[in-house]
Amino acid sequence: xxxxxxxxxxxxxxxxxxxxxxxxxxxxxxxxxxxxxxxxxxxxxxxxxxxxxxxxxxxxxxxxxxxxxxxxxxxxxxxxxxxxxxxxxxxxxxxxxxxxxxxxxxxxxxxxxxxxxxxxxxxxxxxxxxxxxxxxxxxxxxxxxxxxxxxxxxxxxxxxxxxxxxxxxxxxxxxxxxxxxxxxxxxxxxxxxxxxxxxxxxxxxxxxxxxxxxxxxxxxxxxxxxxxxxxxxxxxxxxxxxxxxxxxxxxxxxxxxxxxxxxxxxxxxxxxxxxxxxxxxx
Length: 282
What we know:
Elements: E1 5-9, H1 22-33, E2 39-42, H2 54-67, E3 73-76, H3 82-94, E4 99-103, H4 112-123, E5 130-134, H5 136-139, H6 145-152, E6 157-162, E7 175-178, H7 184-189, E8 194-197, H8 200-212, H9 217-223, H10 225-230, H11 238-246, H12 263-276
Parallel strand pairs: 1-2, 1-8, 2-3, 3-4, 4-5, 5-6, 6-7, 7-8
Helix pairs in contact: 1-2, 3-4, 8-9, 11-12
């Protein structure tokens, strides 16, 4: 399947006890798909995947598949343990997801041969498209373009979520997806089909128009720039969960070690939402 458009990296709703809120998850899936999102990515950084256990992730994937009405659901199944990534990829595929997002192994800092073998093993565990997630700011390890070309030769490794905002280059055999919100216009200009995004929780229709109205792409980019910047005030997903609460969407709090936005951060987020007109000034 082709992967592109506005793929929202969805927050994970928690209840008052910090457990997965299944009803709120189903509502959020439907809301996002009705408001500019072409598909969803579950259990990633924005979804606090590092503090979800496997059973929670699988339940999250199942709910999204059931509620999506055929829209693409991408499961985040990567880790720094290849064996674990393979197992979770197998289980996510059995749950009916449409693709998997696999991050560069972090902390143990594999060399290039290790990176290739990691992705080869994970790709061998599924018949679904595999999206490579290159985010050196979180993983320390970067995948340079020449190594990305090697990964493109692996069967069903079909796209890259590129969160390195320099040295952007289309790679033959890989769809280039924007990994940061402020990269979307540049990636689209390079021929990429879309991105895996966070601000689309709030300005999804405008982001979708950046694809549909290329002649207005950079104008639209400027119009949402305040909101995009506000979503990067502090560690993701602190700002977007704060913003969603302000807009009346019950997505709950965060799991430690993440904490709620400070008063100063919340004030900046509110100001950006007010300036954009998605939140009335009070």
